[in-house]
Design brief:
By secondary structure, this protein is α+β, with helices and mostly antiparallel strands. Helices cover 22% and strands 29% of the residues. The chain contains 14 helices and 41 strands.
Length: 821
Amino acid sequence: MKLAGTDPDRNFGLVYRDDALAAGPATHVLIIGVGAYQSSRFKKPLTSTTFSARALADWFVGDTPGFRNEACPLGSLALLLSEPAAGGDPRATYADGPVPRASFAASREAVRAWVRRINTHKDNLAILYVAGHGESLLSRTAFLLEDYAMDDLDATAGMSEVEQFMSALENAKAVSQLLLFDCCRSATNLALPWNEPFGSKLIALTRENRGHDEPSKQWVIAATALGEVAGGRVNNTTLFADALLSALGGVAGDPAEEDWPVRPGPLVDSISRLLELHRLPDEKPQTPGGRISGTFEISFAGERAEIPVYISMAEPENWPESDFTVTAVPGGETAFEGATGKPPFQLLKYPEATAINVSARRFGADIGRAKGKARAPAVFLEIRHSATPPPAVVEKLDPGRRAGPAARLLISLSGPVAIAAGAVAEIAGANEAKKSPKQVVVAIGGATPVDVGPGEHVVTLRTPDGRVEIQNVTVAKDEVLEVRFAMPASPHEWLGLATATGAVPPSPPPDPSPPAPAPGLESLRPRPSADVDSSAPPLWQPGFPRPAPPPVIPVIATIAGHVDYALGLHALADPRLAAAIDNDDGRLAQVGLADAAAHRFAPFESSTDDRPVFVAIEAGPRRNLAVVPSIAGRWRPYVLVDRQAPREKSMVTIIAENSIWSGLIGFLAARDAEAGSRLLAGGLQQAVIDAMQDKLADPIAALAAALIAVSASSPDLERRWDPWLFNLANWFPLIPDGPIILGRRLLMRASTAKQFEQAKARFLEGFSRGAPLYSLSADWLARGLESLPDEKALEAPRRAARAFANRIDSTQAFTVIRLGA
């Protein structure tokens, strides 16, 4: 219940506590909103961060709370707010009492108290929300607390690293965790050494006191992608918080189940779709990022009498001054005009199954149409000049060969390259709301048949480049209806696979500095002080000769040996590997890797061929090392070099061409274990096991599948995968990933001293083998060593593994190491 203003637990931010649920299972929430900072570096306070913190607290404990979870009811809520002081008491108030300011010390005490609450039961649900300024250093992100930049002898005092925080919380007793970080992730202005700790720890936990062996289900959702800014609205919520609350309120609900449960996977998808609606002209949409594992119920939104319908345009620059007509059957006609200076979308609500047609005109000219039906939980209608190709009946089924009414959907997906298991689709019968949808694997460059009942169906397609598309279709009895999807075209033929898997970077803005927020918006990124001279003469003025374009930076590629965790190169370069520039458009260069070795990574072998080899790439002052995932006849890798890659990202991406497995690699790069596990369930899992049993060993594919299976806590993990995790560790004695993945699996289940010793032995074995094939393996090694009980023998490997992981580009599937400062 809400605490009195004089309750001593208010000192730790606690505003709600149900003592009857102290032993659990219960939901325990911690919310930190930082708007006003002490340092003069911050010229004016943020308003959207604390507004968002209050709005989310209201969703849990307000007059009309939205949170409902009977299996895990609300046990506690703590709130810290840093707002401009009003009056003598610097503390803000909430629920008729004071709450602490979000200084580092107060936040640390609140986090410790929250962790003690979530540690009372393994089935507790832990929810954390932090809103404030944020920065990134290489692949790491830190959020800034109120007293950041107040210590002249410690540049990182008052900031805390997200990656260390989430790694520590993975060792808490609560299995289900939802961690939300609503802050910018743009590059820091601090000139820190690359291996400097990026802030101070709020908490540090190891695994041995967890008390059970159930794998963690931790979802970490950041408001924006690494290197990008997050937006807020003055005296309103942030864009992320607005999308979060809408998603929790029903847009992310599952209408196939009673009371519409909201789970983390649909929550991320819905937040992403809602954030896209706010995209202004010439602006990239704010895209949430994070890491995922397992699934659980967050809340139950409940059925809705009316379905939200979001109307937007593919070209948001056409939204202002356009006239829109919405025809609903039943319901009549509604008209509105696109407003200037406001988000380019309109929200309307209609009863279930309402047919909706939208037309748009601008200055008297027709500029596009969209149509659909109001289907739970929400509908997104995007008006385009050229509409998606409509579904078409392509053939008829033989009614004499089937018992009962039947129909078939043919899901076709065109793309710049063919991948047999490239995407995943979900087919839900619109009139079968309580029936679980069908999950199928879809080929890129092909068509996948799905038998369904006659009627209306909602088809949701998820591709490895991060896109999610939805179509509502109606198929009649005995019809075969082709449902057509198309992936974006590749800018070059030689970039087909890179485009399909989301590896082709967008063009950077001409000005590398972040743009000033639009009127009514604010950036959750600290901006330079006003006394910093940001004026500069223009690069070119009319009437003067245009300067010559800058020279193209040469790319130098050299085959190196294998790499250890001290970033030392060992062994001579393999003469059977050769690197050469195959294609170059001035910005992107393709470095081909020709491999004359008959077979790399042979089982039970310990020769040079069986250890991961790296290629060194130099372009100007930047240097990267990239692993070479090559197996003759199966994996053909090349290096994609982006000369204009931002500082916080590597300039190199490894593209490994494989007509079967490349889709899984794309989902692994996105850390989308849920979609990846669907590919495994659709046949890839059996394919890799069959290949291993037939001695056609493909450890590159097998390790990717194992990373996905362990990440997703697949239902058949113990029965099907555990024996093969031992095989992967033992059959390939020079590949580091096998023992690291096995160590992760053993650690997740460890509860006795003997089990922790077994996990430690596997982690140290992986460490001794050198740099792994996959970036996620490097992350798991660092986190695993840090989660083990403390002992002297682990100090040096921990430091080396963490330093190495900080160099890795975590946005990629394969290991790419950034060298230099």
